[in-house]
Amino acid sequence: MLNNNPSAARDGPSSAYEILKSYDLPVGLLPKGSTGYDLDEKTGKFSAYFNESCSFSLEGGYKLKYNSKINGYISKGRLSKLSGVSVKVLFLWFNIAEVTRNGDDLEFSVGIASADFSIDNFYIIPQCGCGLNCDGETKKSIRSPFVSSI
Prior knowledge:
The protein is mainly β. It has one domain: Roll (at5g01610, DUF538 DOMAIN), CATH 2.30.240. The chain has 2 helices and 10 strands, in the order E-H-E-E-E-E-E-E-E-E-E-H. Strands 1, 2, 3, 4, 5, 6, 7, 8, 9 and 10 form a 10-stranded antiparallel sheet that branches. The longest helix is centred in the first third of the chain and has 7 residues, at 16-22. It is globular, with a radius of gyration of 15 Å. The model is unreliable at 1-10 and 141-150 (pLDDT under 50).
């Protein structure tokens, strides 16, 4: 298992964001502030770490919440069996179970529903508290397909 320890010399990706890119996934799937990661290259088991939990709102009425540790399995264009990431749709919280890249779209599955978003929405790393609107100007707009899917 690889552990992202800044004092350890190693070859390969040096951050959780670089791991995402190496598996053809956009860096904006994780919020800013990852302190490290674990990756078992044989099984694809992947964990990303943060100093604390994080939440923020996105245009379109979504609120995202990340635990201080996110777990799942990573493969080319896919994060599966996710835990530690949830989305609020209307008044309910749903765990995001899987993210799959289909060309220029990302499909997010919450178990009972799924929604597609343009990958362009995820090239910018969101910040805890303010998401993509930290300087008063929203970087990308995300429409609300989950609402119509439930």
